[in-house]
Amino acid sequence: MNDSSPVGDADGRSVVVVGSGFGGLSTACYLANAGADVTVLEKNEQLGGRASRLHTDGFRFDMGPSWYLMPDVFEDFFADFGRRPEEYYGLERLDPHYRIFFKDGDRVDLVPDMDANRETFEAYEPGAGDALDDYLDRAAYTYDVGMEHFVYEDRSRLRDFVDPDVLRYARGLSLLGTMQDHVEEYFDHPKLQQIVQYSLVFLGGAPNNTPALYNLMSHVDFNLGVYYPEDGMGGVVDGIVAVAEELGVDFRVDHPVAEIRGREGAFAVRTEDGREFFPDEVVSDADYAHTEQELLVPEDRQYDADYWDSRTYAPSAFLLYLGVEGDVDPLEHHTLVLPTDWDDHFETIFGDPAWPEDPAYYLCVPSKTDDTVAPEGHSNLFVLAPVAPGLDDGPERRQRFRDLLLDDIAEHTGVDLRDRIVVEERFSVSEFADRYNSTQGTALGLAHTLRQTSLLRPPHASEAVDGLYFTGSYTTPGIGVPMCLISGRLTAERMTTTR
Hints:
Blueprint: E1 14-18, H1 22-33, E2 37-41, E3 53-56, E4 59-62, H2 71-79, E5 91-93, E6 98-102, E7 107-110, H3 114-124, H4 128-151, H5 164-170, H6 179-184, H7 190-197, H8 200-203, H9 216-224, E8 227-229, H10 232-246, E9 250-252, E10 257-263, E11 266-271, E12 276-277, E13 281-284, H11 288-295, H12 305-309, E14 316-325, E15 334-338, H13 343-351, E16 361-364, E17 378-387, H14 395-413, E18 421-427, H15 429-436, E19 468-470, H16 481-497
Parallel strand pairs: 1-2, 1-13, 2-9, 6-15, 13-19
Antiparallel strand pairs: 3-4, 5-8, 6-7, 10-11, 11-12, 14-17, 14-18, 15-16, 16-17
Helix pairs in contact: 1-10, 1-16, 2-16, 3-4, 4-9
């Protein structure tokens, strides 16, 4: 056991981890390092959960996460096992971090050079350069205090927040109010508001329903930087899997779990083909609602169907994975295409669910940075449009939306892909539900709304079954690859400190 690990002693206990997303991989590493005998059961043919890879006709696509943010969290994770990320993969800082095309014809690059970013803000609104500095100072404070005292600490009960030390740390944090309210204190111009709020798409929220606390994401974006890992996010999965195997974790792919029965010290985990495992404890990194509603008998569930039906889920997504002849200038590695008024787009996700007519969307072009992801003379990109979970995504609907997106890309970026596509794969609500057992086909899990943040998210430890635990984006600290890595640590801490 590495002495630097924050996790206690697992004293030779046997643990089955269901699912190999970043939360499951992280939990497995911490528990194995603490002395547990860990087996990870993965439903699909490859490890990584939503961070799957698609290989076809010489193209390699990251199917899920594509932004490498919060490098400090990855450094902390590897350091907990006496290792460094660069031992497993390289990193390249992107410049620009990303490009935005507004649909009225404006184009904005956000870059590592903060003087240039100040000039960009100032061009839209006099005084906005100084306001950006003030906004980022607040975001940096929120990040430093929030990460140390609220993200890396599992405050899952109300009494955890009434401790005098916690109240002292919380002073000055935007724990109440929405991101929209907070941003309006600094910027009047709607485009500047959008620039500092775009990351809400990755948190599964909207400006009017996400807590202002998440202003910390602007510190992540502007100050910590945006990176591309060697071999993409799949390379990060490979690195973490390598650490897990060095620690003794046993991985089993093509092992979809059908049932979890028992209690601490006497579990039975059965796969769909009848294989059985008998661990002392179980951790589920599968969809939380799916685990409770499908893998557990009714008396072992913490929540009923009405509870899960009443939750606000993060968006699903419509994705096009495209292999294209030639280059795709002027797209950058990360490109956002935004309506000048995106309220209608969020309304179609959180208000009146429907396929958006004027979508906000994201284009990822890893071939701008990595020449191994596409054959020579070709470009690799995917298009991601957030859509409401649970939408009907039948073939005719998909085709119409696909055509709308390609038309929109041509009109607003000047890049016409339509006659150059040599590889095309589509992935949407149904695939999220089928491949990942994702409730309502959400791409991310529970949204970070005011009523679903911190202690209001489902717990790491089941309140109905001793020895059953949960990790991943449904739990604290929430959505995103770095948060899921931290979730794994919190789950392992809970398992090794509550016996």
